[in-house]
Amino acid sequence: MTNSIAEIEETDVILITGSNTSEAHPIIGRMIKRAVDRRRAKLIVVDPRKIPMVSFANIWLRPRPGTDVAWINGLCHVILEEGLWDREFVAQRTEGFEEFRESVKEFTPEYVEQVCGIPAEDLRRAARLYARAPKAMIFYAMGITQHAHGTDNVKALANLVMLCGQVGREGTGLNPLRGQNNVQGACDMGALPNVLPGYQPVTDEEVLARFQAEWATGVRLSNKVGMPVTEMFPAVLEGRLRAMYIVGENPALSDANVSHVREALEALDFLVVQDIFFTETAAYADVVLPAASFAEKDGTFTNTERRVQRVRKAIDPPGRARADWEIFCRLAKAYSRELNKRSAVAAVANGLAARCKDRGYWDYADPSEIFDELAAVTPIYAGLSYKRVERGGIQWPCPSRHHPGTPYLHKDRFARGRGKFHALAFQGPAELPDEEYPFYLSTGRIRFHYHTGTMTRRCRGLDRLAPAERIQIHPQDAERLGIRTGDRVRVVSRRGEVEAEVLVSENPAPGMVFATFHFAEVPVNVLTNDALDPVSKIPELKVCAVRVEKVAA
Amino acid sequence: MTILMDGMRLNAREGQTILDVAREHDIRIPTLCYHEKLKPIGSCRMCIVEVEGSSTPVAACTTAVSDGMIVRTHTPDLVELRRETLKLIFLKHPMNCAACEINGNCQLQDLAHEYDINHTDLHTYNIRPVEPEPGPYATPLIQYHPRRCILCGRCVQACVEITEVGAINFKGRGALARIAPVERMGSIKPECVSCGECMAVCPVNALTEALGKKRGKAWETRKVKTTCTYCGCGCQLELNAVGETVTAVTPVDGGVNRGALCSKGRFGYDFINHHERLKTPLIRENGTWREANWDEALDFVAKRLVDIRSESGPDAIGALASARCTNEENYLFQKFIRGVIGTNNVDHCARL
Fold first, then answer.
1. For chain A, which residues score pLDDT lower than 50?
2. Contact at 8 Å (CB) between B343 and A226?
3. pLDDT of residue A122
4. How far is CA A92 from CA A97, A162, A413, in A?
């Protein structure tokens, strides 16, 4: 998030798109509801589904799935046409404006209505409400990013935000709601193929040299950008990737076109899975390592507003299970022993210097020592320590010991200097409904479960509230197909099929079905499309084409 | 402005209640329905005080101060009235405190002590308590204990003020009054979201986890403040542990969530002590799994990684870190993959 969660209490207009906030981020959802209810903040929801937040909204726009660039450009079009843009901000803080202005000319409300199905007048109202707000916040989540053109969607929103000068101040900004406790931290720590900790590019020789000296493992750091997860599985099937080490993830259930992923897991020469349960992915492993849960270790998580907060150990891990950090340290030592065993010849063949010996190598008394090391090499964390984040946490960037942290970004300048407008053309989803597969399928989450259900399916209460998948379909479609709530349906895409119970609901738009990926019994990701965004390599989990068939009782 | 409370001249501000001023100056007025996170409810009558000029006592939590107000918080009359109020509560509320998890950590129990309520008191009324009928609650995750309930209304208020839902309300009158799910509010049916805010504010343990583990007594429970493991909001909460078992999640003040929690944060802890947790390293041999110790398992992993790296180069190895793990762990893991294996093939599920 560019801004902070608490700023919801100060903003005037909130625009939510591609986030089922009250289900996936219930506490943030409540704060938004309260802002609307108590302070009369205005709420715009843009979502193909009639999500619960819609009942609190002043304006609800219902675009066809996968048409986001069109309606966002449409908003910009109206704002420019009616002269509602922030001339001062655009002149002083941005570049590429003229080209951008040209690019949104064709996105008239009438054209947008054709493409997205949003009534032209509603689009105009929403544009005025957002642009005229003294302070406006945009919240988005995977409904914006999980598209074959997800990067374009985000850039389009960034255009909108800059056009109206709704960034760099309190109560404004472009705010992605991150779905997992520490997805922000994992990115910050360089668990990404192109950047080292603190988003320092692996292709930057100066950066590499610094890490080389700091880590001193004796191995030459690679300056070649690695593979993102969505490219790893195809690479396995092409024989380019032979071994994988998977920590606390369940791609056999969570990834798009999961049959393909399972084929790849099967084909690996060697697979290590480190987790707290024997997941669907663990079934493919050669070695399974038992890890500790969040209750059994010390450390830090970084939340969606960049706040680094403490995690504290309450109990010991069960049996021989160990905290992941302990496992990594022991593994590094085992690896070094193995190399030493193989004589100098092998060590040289591996490009390893004598440095890689067991003296003080990968020894940390506790996670605070690891934190001090990572803070030293991660400029945005440089001023942080356990002592400093002990009470309430601190939001990065925090470059020095006396820096108070940064509640909102881009105050006087953007990271790159001036904010760049992007001229964007509208491109539809990779797969559209047709005669054979007439429905859109969109996937997402429900309040009571989390991701592939590894944890929440094992919580009695939560599993009682939502014990099984219920695929949602609009009443009009249900009637046409002769389906009622509780019937079983088969949902078929070009990639696979699943069977589940149906819930007739006004939540999905007509012509659309919705399913979650929480239930191993109904692995909905056998249906989804693994078409990737060319930049972020995100799969298009939010749109694919399916057909729905009633299953005879 | 200044007011005179129990003979002391105290500074007060416009908009403050008598209770606010008293608390600011460490004058204790007993309360039951009052909760810091909620607007004053004014239902329990424990905080009654005498205000000069008023013929009847007033509730300190709902009465605004005015300049020159003269307030008395502890007169013999007030004490007697509070005792009567407590006696009425204990006509219904069971006195078998030993069987209650919050024994020793209960506001009502403390007040009973302070005002010296005992069984003999209750006989003076010669009334047999009506046994309230058990009925459904708004969510199967919470059990409602009608006899314990003192009808203070905190839960009802929390559902509206904290959760923004309004799924529960009072039902019935007099001795039969209880808390029950709201059937309909105008044209809409408020839907309980099972967040448990009602349970969190209940002062007398009348709302308990229906499916939870047996909660420990206050004195045997360790409370450890930590960060929630579910979504990216980063709510602060307290794990309650008895021995090596997590028995409950309770709220803490402050944090981005300001003490509020959702259904997963509050009720999603069973997995921690679940019997299916992995407890030992496993190695697959000839298609079957065998338990191994750590040295064995890690030596094997190291051997295979070294093999594959020597045969096919570091880029033949790929790694997925985890958005569920800590910063420290993600840092170490990518350091291992980059600095020891020598590849940038490290990613995690940020895209899913």
1. 353-359
2. yes
3. 97
4. 11, 11, 10
R_g of chain A computed on alpha carbons: 25
Q: Where in chain A is the domain with CATH 3.40.50.740?
A: 183-321+368-395
pTM: 0.94
CB contact under 8 A, A462 and B267: yes
Question: Which residues pair with residue B180 across a beta bridge?
Answer: B169
Q: Across the interface, do A301 and B331 touch by the CB < 8 Å criterion?
A: no
Nearest by CB to B254, which of A24, A350, A392? A392
> Which class would CATH give A5-177?
alpha beta
Mean pLDDT of B305-312: 95
CA distances (Å), origin A362, targets A217, A495, B324, B332: 10, 45, 22, 9
CB contacts of B140 in chain A (<8 Å) are 461, 464-465
Inter-chain CB proximity A286 and B260 less than 8 Å: no
> Token pair 């895409």 is at which residue?
A493
The pair phi, psi for residue A403, each rounded to 5°, is: -75, 135
| β A307-311/A299-302 pair status | antiparallel
Q: What domains sit in chain B, N to C, each tagged with a CATH number?
A: 2-74 (3.10.20.740), 130-211 (3.30.70.20), 313-352 (no CATH)
Which CATH fold would you assign to the domain A439-550?
A: Barwin-like endoglucanases (2.40.40)
Segment 215-234 of chain B within 8 Å of chain A by CB:
222, 224-234
Taking the CA of residue A409 and the nearest CA in chain B, the distance in Å comes to 18
Q: Which residue on chain A is closest to B344 by alpha carbon?
A: A226
CB-nearest partner of B271 from A217, A321, A458: A458
Cβ contact, residue pair A337, B299, below 8 Å = yes
Domain A183-321+368-395 has CATH 3.60.21.10: no
